[in-house]
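Box S2. Input/output pair 1.
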Amino acid sequence: MSTAPSTTTDEAPPPVTPAPSPGRWSPLRPLILRLHFYAGVFVAPFLLVAAVTGFLYAGAFQAEKIVYSHEMTVPVGDAKLPISEQVAAARKAYSEGAVSAVRPSPEDDATTRVMLSGVKGVDATHTLAVFVDPYTGKVRGALEQYGSTGALPLRTWIDEFHRDLQLGENGRLYSELAASWLWVIAGGGLVLWFSRRRALRKVRGTSGRRRTLGLHGSVGVWAAAGFIFLSATGLTWSTYAGANIDELRTSLGQSTPSVSSASGGDHSGHGASSSAGDAEHGVGLDKVLAAARAEGLGDPVEIVPPADESSAYVVKQVQRSWPEKQDAVAIDPTTGEVTDVLRFADYPLLAKLTRWGIDLHTGVLFGLVNQIALMLLALSLVLLIVWGYRMWWQRGRGSSFGRPIPRGAWQQVPPQILLPCVVAIAVLGYFVPLLGIPLAGFIVADVVLGEIAHRRGGRKDTVEAGSK
């Protein structure tokens, strides 16, 4: 007895899925791939240095507390001495230089810092911080200090190495180059990863170059937002791009405001003068601090003495952790009256975003959590660079150098897409010169190498034709 042919779906031929039609922007993928490759190969060494030093800097906050615990902390006593007595104790121990600022003990177990400028042997851009026990007036030591976050020698050295490789202003070009390209590389990587078929993004069950690519792409996707943020905030205080950003903010009325230190007149001969280098002017530090407290300025604060006889005291909050405390007041040294008040709440939006962005970038906005996140980002960048170079090696199948991405990608991009991209890149390169100049160099080198290869290929064809 015969049976009818089976028509179950198990034996039916699989349906043919038509290949997806290329999208409008798909011609850009080879161009982005080539840019990602070139930038990865040539800029990665600078990014590697920035990542390693950034990792160390993020950990330096906790290391600083351990290394300098004697200077920074004291046993909690019964009552703190007036700030004027603490400053007098510091000046008795260190009479050289002038008092440039005073940071009263912000916590029960913290010392007071008296900053001295013009001290022999101390860098002109740094101060000598004298640490005073606020309960006994005993000086616990003195250390060189740098910056608004009060970095001590360990963190200062790492900070300067991260910023300029200890080479001064010329060395800052390295960090600006890294910041200028990090967002380009991260953004290009995102485009390349999500434009691949889902099946090609897998890591599990793969090996060789495909596994390396999977690891590189997966970690890169998760870390990309952090990289773009670090790039943007790093550019805000770079040499060239930073100056352009400042000009733009100023033109938009979004620059960071400052409290007016003008006291309203010349007070010479009216009790406002003081001995050279002293912090006591007119009404003195204690009344000035009390006036600032009355305006709502809670710890931590910094008191800046008048610069001259026509200037006022400036008391400003210096808390960079969340929520930020950045209010400031100016106080007349003769009358002790507040002459100007600046609230952080009144800052322009871009000024606030810049402040938050920089503090998040440096690891102080959210304290230890912020610092751990930065260390993880730095470690991710190191791994991505290692995997990137490994993929290049694997692409060359073990040769001393991997094969580059083929040329001619830009020729496949339609003019209506290519021309706007060229204009946008030109404008961006003008405002971010350490992106524009290297990019122009990449293009010139690519054209030259392509022409050389083309001529060699032409001569080879001629020789082969002649031999026949």
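Box S3. Input/output pair 2.
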Amino acid sequence: MIAAAVLAAGRGERFGGDTPKPLVAFRGRPLVLHALDAAGASGLAPVLLIVGNGAEAVAAVVPPTVEVVRNDAWASGIASSLVSALGALRHRDDVDAVVIGLADQPLVGADAYRRLAAAYDDGARLAVATYGGTRGNPVLLARAHWEEAMTLTGDEGARVLLGRHPAVEVSCDGTGSPTDVDTPADLAALEG
């Protein structure tokens, strides 16, 4: 079984404001719901959402089919969210890999998750989505990489593993866009 995990724990400092970034409206719905829609529609299971900053408020909008995992160390960087996701999965012997996505990329499509899962089925143990030949998200981590991933700290995410080990690049052209919503200007550009 291949799980999906959406990371939504960060502060979103560049975005500013008092609302946790995952709850900022995009096309009339909280940003995080777009990312969860893709993860859920992919057919991967379980689907986890890692929350931290504004955890209760973010968890309150999540569908009951999503497992919410709280990252109390969220302020230390993205690695803590990756560690939280893996920690929630590692005792589940039925989960062989996880596809990691980000809550602030609302246009990543379900097919990107599916293509990474298919790469696992074809033998990939570390895989990354590419768009126009450029690496983006989501990223697939097979269980063989979890122990190493759980040693990451600060703002070291899966990208560190991609730099250390050979990874299968999976074209996700035509599945959506990995555009980040880091600032209000980014959001306005996507809305436009």
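Caption for Box S3: Helices lie at 31-41, 55-60, 78-89, 110-121, 146-149, 158-164, 184-191. The chain has a mean pLDDT of 92.
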